[in-house]
Specification:
The protein is α+β, with helices and mostly antiparallel strands and 266 residues long. The chain is built from three helices and twelve strands; from the N terminus they run βββββββββααβββα. The relative contact order is 0.13.
Length: 266
């Protein structure tokens, strides 16, 4: 049985998960990532500054078949563990402004009461030891299960291809942002047009009546501070910010003025 979890994404929209965790006085927990064969993955980013205690420590790009190893300890004793396989990942580009990523995972092994629910595959042994070790490390401040070996040099062809893909993505995201800006502008214009029409159809007159009542309150209670009410063409000001001429907004003004009038009577 699988479940969906929210994960991170890199600036380029690649699904990623943080290696994180460490120990406290009474216990600790940790999450590390392993490749499909159980070996260490490469990190796209490793934190070396700021608050590092118990992570997050290293951001790892993940793919289908990768594993998440979660471990928990208490009083120096291994208490729980869970190995999850990433079934698939999904990344959504939200209007070219940010990425939202999820992963579907399924449980492969669980550990409790000192034993595994089924025999542990040999390929998981190193990752499990690393996860428990990290959970036991008091205020752990570094990643423990990432590949730090030297990368092979990028060929000119690889670099050309990477830069072309980045330029293509940048163009697509710029289009998404432009589309959103145009849609937002249209929605704003339509809302303002509806607001002006609503003002002419009676809401403006109701606010003018509320203004008269509010002025009377201010005159009879000069030491009391009331919200300011100012009428404009498409918006009116009441309290904080501009408000459209809508039934809900006008009713809110009338309710507040009525409440203040009741307070004076009491």
């Amino acid at each position: 049985m699988s479940k969906s979890i929210t994960i991170d994404a890199t600036k380029r929209g690649i699904p990623a998960i943080w290696e994180t965790g460490g120990g406290l006085t009474s216990g600790g927990s940790a999450t590390i990532i392993a490749k499909a064969d159980g070996t260490k993955p490469r990190a796209v980013y490793v934190r070396t500054r700021g608050h590092l205690s118990r992570g997050p420590h290293a951001l790892v790009c993940v793919h289908e078949g990768f594993y998440l190893v979660h471990a928990g300890v208490g009083r120096g004793v291994r208490q729980s563990a869970r190995i999850e396989r990433i079934v698939k990942t999904s990344v959504k580009d939200i209007h070219g402004e940010k990425f939202e990523a999820t992963a579907e995972v399924e449980v492969v092994n669980t550990f409790s009461r000192g034993e595994w629910d089924k025999p542990l595959e040999a390929k998981f042994e190193a990752a499990v030891e690393a996860a428990f070790g990290k959970a036991l490390t008091y205020h752990c401040r570094r990643a423990v299960y990432i590949d730090t070996s030297e990368r092979s040099a990028e060929t000119p062809e690889q670099r050309k291809h990477r830069e072309a893909e980045m330029a293509k993505q940048d163009g697509e995201r710029a289009r998404l942002r432009a589309d959103k800006a145009a849609a937002d502008a249209q929605a704003k214009a339509e809302a303002e047009a509806a607001s002006r029409e609503a003002k002419q159809n009676g809401l403006g007159a109701r606010l003018e009546a509320a203004q008269v009542r509010l002025n009377a309150l201010q005159s009879s209670n000069p030491t009391t501070s009331y919200s300011k009410l100012e009428l404009g063409e498409s918006y009116f000001v009441f309290g904080w910010g501009n408000k459209l001429y809508t039934e809900e907004n006008v009713r809110n003004v009338e309710h507040n003025v009525g409440y203040w009038e009741e307070q004076v009577v009491e």
